[in-house]
Specification:
The chain is an alpha+beta fold and 422 residues long. It is built from twelve helices and 15 strands. 41% of the residues lie in helices and 18% in strands.
Length: 422
C-alpha cells in the first residue's frame, strides 16, 4: 500500500517511478478519487456542525417563545439528518474507492533497480559452479527412482507428485537440512498456519490482484501460496519494540498455487506444481536495517545452494520483472544439467513499508511516543522440489543412480545413493 500523503506531495515523482514498472499515469485516478473523498468529508463536516448549531438553537427559540422559529429549526435538522446519512455513505464509498485504487498499484522500485519491463532487463551479477550437460532430465530420472506421476494424477490430477522410497527420503532430507541450516545461522523456526484469512492475503499483496492464482476454501480462508503470508502477518496490527528488531523467521511448509497461465512451461516433473514444499525466510526490521538484512537473507539462500554443491546464478531483477510487493528483488536460478538451462529456485525481496501499511505493522523506538511502519523482507531458502530436481540432474551417475550430497547424509538413514527401481 502506498503513502497517500507522499503521493499528494509528489505525484509526478510517483508516476515516474511506476512508469518504470509499466504503469502509466498512476496518480491521476487516485488523486481524482481523493479529491472527491475530501470534498465529501468537508461537506459532511459542515452538515454535522450545522446540525449541532441548529439543535442548540431549537432550545433557545423555545425558551424565547419563538414557536415558529423552533419549528423551522426542527425541519432543518430533519433535512440535515438525511443529508448527513447520504454524506456518511459518500465518505464510506469514497474511502473504499481510494483504498482500492492504491491497493491495485505495485510497489515503487528502488533507485538502484535497473530499468526494463520484462526478464530481458534483468542483470546477472554472479555465477557459482560449473554448467555441465548430462543426458537425463530430472523427470525421466525420477521416474526410475520413485516418482509416480500416474498415481498422483489418479488421486489429484495434473501437477502433483507422489514420491516413494529413497526419493521421498531425499525430499524430506532437503527440507530438514535447509531449515536446520537457517536455524543454526540465527533464524527462528516457526510452524505457521497453512490456512489464512483474507486480510492476511491482502496484507502481503496476494489479494486482490492475484485472486485467480490462489486456492480459496468454502469458509473464506485461503491456502498459503508461500509461508511469507503467515510469517509476515505475525507482525500484523502490532507495535514492535525496535530494540527487538530485526525479527528473522524461517518455516518449512507446503505451498499451494494454481499457477494460472503457466501451462506449457516447466509443467513436467517437480518444477511447477500446484502443491510443493519450500523453506521461506521472512525478516521484520526497521528502515535503517533493511539493506543489511536484504544482503543477509540473500547470503542465507545462496549458502544453501553452495553447501549442496549446486551451480547457480544471481540476477538483480529489473523494475518491470519484480513481484508486485517488491522494491528490490534478487533471483537465484539453479542450473539443471539435464535440461541445459537455469531455473528460478529462490527470490529474495525487500518490500520497504509496502506490506506493513497493508497490515498496519509498526515499530517504536525506546522512549519515543511516535511509531513508524516496519520494513519487511522475504525470500525462498529454498524451494525443496526444485532443489531435488537440480540434485537429481547434477549428481546422476552413468548407471542411472544418484549420489547423495554429503550435507544430506545425516538425514538419509545410511542411504548414500538412490538406485533405479528394478
Amino acid at each position: 500500500m502506498h503513502d497517500l500523503k507522499a503521493l499528494r506531495t509528489d505525484p509526478s515523482g510517483f508516476d515516474r517511478a511506476l512508469l518504470r514498472r509499466g504503469v502509466a499515469d498512476a496518480s491521476a485516478c487516485v488523486l481524482a478519487a481523493d479529491a472527491r473523498l475530501r470534498a465529501a468529508q468537508t461537506a459532511l463536516q459542515a452538515d454535522l456542525a450545522r446540525r449541532n448549531e441548529a439543535s442548540k438553537a431549537i432550545g433557545a427559540a423555545v425558551a424565547q417563545g419563538d414557536a415558529a422559529g423552533a419549528e423551522a429549526l426542527k425541519a432543518e435538522v430533519a433535512a440535515l439528518k438525511a443529508r448527513i446519512a447520504a454524506g456518511e455513505e459518500a465518505v464510506r464509498a469514497g474511502t473504499e474507492e481510494v483504498h482500492a485504487l492504491l491497493a491495485a498499484l505495485p510497489n515503487l522500485p528502488a533507485d538502484d533497480v535497473p530499468d526494463g519491463l520484462d526478464e530481458t532487463g534483468n542483470v546477472e551479477q554472479h555465477r557459482c559452479g560449473e554448467t555441465p550437460r548430462l543426458a537425463l532430465e530430472h523427470d525421466a530420472l525420477a521416474a526410475r527412482l520413485g516418482l509416480d506421476a500416474q498415481a498422483a494424477a489418479r488421486v489429484a490430477g495434473s501437477r502433483f507428485a507422489v514420491l516413494r522410497g529413497g526419493l521421498a527420503r531425499l525430499h524430506r532430507a532437503l527440507g530438514a537440512f535447509m531449515l536446520d541450516r537457517h536455524v543454526a545461522h540465527g533464524w527462528q523456526e516457526v510452524s505457521p498456519p497453512l490456512l489464512v484469512r483474507e486480510e492476511a492475503m491482502f496484507g502481503t499483496a496476494q489479494l486482490p490482484k492475484f485472486r485467480d492464482e490462489q486456492f480459496e476454501t468454502t469458509d473464506g480462508r485461503w491456502l498459503i501460496p508461500t509461508a511469507e503470508v503467515s510469517l509476515t502477518n505475525l507482525a500484523r496490527e502490532q507495535i514492535l519494540d525496535e530494540d527487538a528488531l530485526p525479527m528473522r523467521m524461517a518455516a518449512l511448509t507446503p505451498c499451494f498455487r494454481k499457477e494460472a497461465g503457466a501451462a506449457g512451461r516447466d509443467t513436467r516433473g517437480l518444477i511447477r506444481q500446484h502443491q510443493f514444499e519450500k523453506v521461506e525466510l521472512v525478516t521484520i526490521c526497521t528502515p535503517e536495517q533493511a539493506d543489511a538484512e536484504h544482503a543477509h537473507m540473500l547470503s542465507a539462500a545462496e549458502g544453501v545452494l553452495e553447501a549442496l554443491g549446486l551451480s547457480f546464478r544471481r540476477l538483480l531483477l529489473c523494475a518491470g520483472d519484480m513481484g508486485f510487493a517488491a522494491r528490490r528483488t534478487f533471483d537465484l536460478e539453479v542450473w539443471l544439467p539435464g535440461a541445459g538451462a537455469f531455473r528460478e529456485i529462490a527470490s529474495v525481496s525487500w518490500c520497504g513499508d509496502f506490506q506493513a501499511r497493508r497490515m498496519d505493522a509498526r515499530c517504536r523506538a525506546p522512549g519515543e511516543k511516535g511509531t513508524r511502519f516496519v520494513h519487511t523482507l522475504n525470500g525462498s531458502g529454498v524451494a525443496v522440489g526444485r532443489a531435488l530436481a537440480a540434485l537429481l540432474e547434477t549428481f546422476q551417475q552413468p548407471d542411472g543412480s544418484v549420489m547423495v550430497p554429503p550435507p544430506l547424509l545425516p538425514y538419509m538413514g545410511g542411504l548414500d545413493r538412490l538406485c533405479p527401481e528394478p
